[in-house]
Amino acid sequence: MKVKQITMIAMLTALTTALSLVFIIPVPQTKGFVTLCETGIYAAALLFGPTAGAFVGGLSGGMIDLLSGYPEWAVFSILIHGLQGWLVGRLAHRPTLAVTLGSLTMIIGYAAATLLLFGWGAGIASIPGNLIQTIFGSIVALPLVQALRRTNKFPMNER
Predict the structure, then answer these.
(1) If 0-12 CB within 10 Å is exposed, 13-18 middle and 19+ buried, where does residue 91 land?
(2) Which residue in 13, 16, 114, 117 has its CB near the most CB atoms, within 10 A?
């Protein structure tokens, strides 16, 4: 990767983490929260490909949990958001399908993690908040990525 791309990916990771810590809605049933994490993950994956999506997703997801006082979720977030970012990046040529499957990966991943930590009731209770988070992330990320691509400064270099 070029130095400029690495710098942009690092900045997207930091921005995703910061935005997610500023805009945070607690979900008491699951001891979790709803954030803007998906916006940064989707933007990185759609602009720079699967490796960038996995890096931004995994690293920002883990840092958000650690910095917000939820260390028990960090490993789950690294894996779930990393896979989500990678998947969206692999399917970046079809952005709507990519974010739909990425969203399903996140929703199912966190439902399974919540089920492991807190049981069936909490696993099911996690679905609406994660659904809202992924929908909001998609609504912000898709037009943002389209606008950035029109500048011709963000070509897809990785497949």
Answers:
(1) buried
(2) 16
Half-sphere exposure of residue 18: CA atoms within 13 angstroms, side-chain side? 6
Predicted confidence band of residue 158 (pLDDT cuts 50, 70, 90)? very low
With pLDDT > 70 as the criterion, what percentage of the chain qualifies? 91
Residue 26 DSSP symbol = E
Cβ neighbors of 52 (< 8 A, separation 6 or more) are 5, 9, 12, 44, 45, 85, 89, 158
Length of the chain (residues): 159
Torsion (CA) 126, 76, 118, 98 in degrees, nearest 10: 30
The long-range contacts involving 99-104, CB below 8 angstroms and separated by at least 24 positions, are 99/38, 99/42, 99/46, 99/134, 99/137, 99/138, 99/141, 99/142, 100/138, 102/38, 102/41, 102/42, 102/45, 102/134, 103/38, 103/131, 103/134, 103/135, 103/137, 103/138
